[in-house]
Specification:
single chain; 443 residues; alpha/beta; Aspartate Aminotransferase, domain 1; Aspartate Aminotransferase, domain 2; seven-stranded mixed beta sheet; globular; binds pyridoxal-5'-phosphate
Length: 443
């Protein structure tokens, strides 16, 4: 289908919204949906604009209700590694939908996807499917606490692990963008059980372990941070965490909701060769449908109900539509040379942006791991939450607006990752660099 015919189909199915602008829709939706969005990161509040309302998307492009097209680097915040409306995924879903969309009973496809994840990520011996990354991390914490009989956990400032109570403490992503890294509504007594360390700073973990040598159930971490903007682990950091956890009988949880199947088909744990005890997955795992998962060592996973006593459940978990999209996506990632292509495209984008910023005498830093990257408007290296927060948010906001006006859609926050997909091609990177060249000069 061409872009034009896709637009016609889409418009005809949403007649109600014909001739309505982004602003019209924002005005209407914010009356009935808090902030007009169903997830805060979709708001353009921090860059002072109404959000774009999307009518449809194909490949690396999204189209808004006003008919404007954008080269998309949000990628639905990570899942769209194969691009939007990927033909094979669409066809698999069209075929599957006829057989019913939910049974509340086990299906063969759940087993097939579980086997494939265990093959791609060997530290996962057993896996349970859930519906979102938040559910996955929430379950991971309960499992770690139930397994170890301990209550305290350590997370890093600026890492985001979904919006469960224990994890919304100094959290990144939208929580940082909108200035509520630790949300009201979370009982203080519960928040006190979450200790906060600094990313890339082993000493900050050692201090906490020193204070509570027998009380830490788990360290949960994004092995490549993506929710304070992208921050790669310094050499030795993840190894050090593995060692500290082993010495203290603490479980190491890698939250790979973003990095899983993104930085490598085996996740960040394959890239850095560190085995966690538990892994949480989401985003790409669902192929664009809502899926999360928690997996890990058999000994720990066996404690989940009904095999063990630690309770977790879900009416729509392992949903056949979601499993169909996820299985198709992972099958395609397993056999293709996509990761090489993504590395080359993303390296070109990084290099081109650095050259153009330098020509405009604008100090920026780019952190990139494979196809996830962030341009920080900062003179200093960004290695943790503190250094990420030193960025010039005004400059980011002006850059974002120039890019948007030029047809390039970036995440509307300094503290988020950009995602390159297999549907991006050289010409899209070139167009992005052309718009960026102008944007760097004008901000
Ligand atoms: C997106 C994300 C989550 C939350 O997943 P949802 O599906 O939005 O609930 C958790 N952890 C990390 C690292 C993420 O990037």
């Amino acid at each position: 289908m061409t872009a034009v015919s896709a637009l016609v189909v889409c418009v005809s199915t949403t007649m109600r919204y014909q001739n309505r602008t982004n602003m019209d829709l924002f005005r209407a939706s914010r009356e009935v949906i808090p902030g007009g969005v169903n997830s805060p990161v979709r708001s353009f509040q921090s860059v002072g604009k109404p959000p774009v309302f999307i009518s449809h998307a194909k490949g690396c492009q999204v189209f808004d209700v006003e008919g404007k097209s954008y080269i998309d680097y949000i990628g639905s915040w990570g899942p769209m590694i194969l691009g939007h409306a990927n033909n094979e995924i669409v066809q698999a879903l069209q075929k599957a939908v006829k057989y019913g969309t939910s049974y509340g009973l086990p299906t063969p496809i759940e087993c097939e996807l579980a086997e494939l994840v265990c093959e791609l990520i060997p530290s996962i011996e057993m896996i349970r499917m859930v519906n979102s990354g938040t559910e996955a991390t929430m379950t991971a914490l309960r499992l770690a606490r139930g397994f170890t009989g301990r209550d305290r956990v350590i997370k890093c400032a600026g890492c985001y692990h979904g919006h469960a109570d224990s994890l919304l403490v100094e959290a990144g992503s939208g929580a940082t963008t909108f200035g509520h890294p630790s949300s009201p509504g979370i009982p203080e007594r519960l928040a006190h059980l979450t200790e906060v360390a600094q990313f890339n700073n082993l000493a900050s973990f050692e201090t906490i372990f020193h204070e509570y040598p027998h009380d830490i159930a788990a360290v949960i971490i994004e092995p490549v941070a993506g929710n304070m903007g992208v921050v790669a682990p310094l050499s030795g950091f993840l190894e050090g965490l593995r060692k500290l956890c082993d010495e203290h009988g603490t479980l190491l949880i890698f939250d790979e909701v973003m990095t899983g199947f993104r930085v490598d088909r085996g996740g960040a744990q394959a890239l850095y060769k560190i085995q966690p005890d538990l892994t949480t997955l989401g985003k790409i795992l669902g192929g664009g449908m809502p899926v999360g998962a928690i997996g890990g060592r058999r000994e720990i996973m066996s404690r989940l109900s009904p095999l063990g006593p630690i309770y977790q459940a879900g009416t729509l978990s392992g949903n056949p539509m979601a499993m169909t999209a996820g299985l198709k996506a992972l099958q395609m990632l397993r056999v293709s040379n996509l990761y090489e292509i993504l590395e080359n495209l993303s390296a070109d984008l990084e290099k081109g942006l650095l050259q153009r910023a330098e020509a405009a005498r604008l100090p920026i830093r780019i952190n990139r791991v494979g196809s996830m990257m962030t341009v920080f408007f900062s003179e200093d290296e960004v290695v943790d939450f503190g250094t990420a927060k030193k960025s010039d948010l005004g400059a980011f906001s002006r850059f974002f607006t120039e890019m948007l006006n030029g047809g390039i859609l970036l995440p509307p926050s300094q503290f988020e990752a950009w995602f390159v997909s297999g549907a991006h091609a050289d010409m899209h990177i070139r167009k992005t660099l052309d718009v960026a060249e102008k944007a760097f000069k004008e901000i």
